[in-house]
Amino acid sequence: MALSKDTRLRLNDGNLMPIIGLGTYAAADVAKSVSEEATKIAIDLGYRHIDCAYIYGNEVEIGRAINSKISDGTVKREEIFYTGKLWCTFFPPELVRKGLEKSLKDLQLESLDLFIMHWPFAIKAMEEINEYIHPSLYDNVDFCATWEALEACKDAGLVKSIGVSNFNHRQLDRLLNKPGLKYKPVCNQVECHLT
């Protein structure tokens, strides 16, 4: 049974987002199959918002879970709201679409419902995925240039909504006051623990 449609909110671009979602981050020592199974169970329980990220390293498994639940008739694709995150190594504008297309391929999806910049800074390309970043790896890419590439992905129909994550007030102001801003971010996703 799905959660009530009243549990969605309208984003500033008109799209609806379920307010309760499953975050799929799992520590490196947790088998990726656990994320896949948790996603299937969450969909069975009524979750319709799935949040994942390239850096989590489990997009293939999450995509398999979503497609399994679509194939078995539990949900239709349009009932799932998928949030993905652009990892910092893909922030150079010429790499943004490549990063998105990699995620789409791994997820076996044609488009994302929400695509957000994971952090407000770029890092240099690394041989392997690593979420722990030494300061020497920071790259000099302006997040406003990355944002313009995200706007192009939205225009191309690859994502429905675009947003940011972990931005502070100054960074948001800078983006919102950027000359030529085409789309405002629909969200600033930040980590918050209620305990």
UniProtKB/TrEMBL annotation:
Q: Name one GO molecular function term.
A: oxidoreductase activity
The NADP-dependent oxidoreductase domain covers: 20-194
Name of a matching Pfam family: Aldo_ket_red
Membrane-spanning ranges: none
Among Gene3D superfamilies, the record links this protein to: NADP-dependent oxidoreductase domain
Output the InterPro entries linked to this UniProt entry. Answer: AKR, Aldo/ket_reductase_CS, NAD(P)_OxRdtase_dom_sf, NADP_OxRdtase_dom
Q: Which family does it belong to?
A: Belongs to the aldo/keto reductase family.
Protein name, as recorded: NADP-dependent oxidoreductase domain-containing protein
Organism, scientific name: Hymenochirus boettgeri (Congo dwarf clawed frog)
